[in-house]
Amino acid sequence: MTMGNEIQRQYPRLIRCMRSAGLLTESEAIGALVEYKVFGIREGFGSEAVAHLGGQLEAIRQGIRYRHFTSSIL
Questions:
Q1: pTM assigned to the model
Q2: pLDDT digit string, tens, across residues 50-70
Q3: Which of 33, 39, 55, 67 is the most buried (most CB within 10 A)?
């Protein structure tokens, strides 16, 4: 099992929220989580869309904020 598959299995809701909040593809969201887990906070990694959001950590933060926001309005 690859790390991407493991991340996809562990964090399906976060990946969906990252896709919605940051307008990322599924592979970009998974890639941001994998890169953050492997390398930590690094600039210049990831897709252009993730870099546009401010990097892996900011893409993850936006996904978490979106998840909390959507759960509070339901």
A1: 0.84
A2: 989 988 999 999 999 998 887
A3: 33
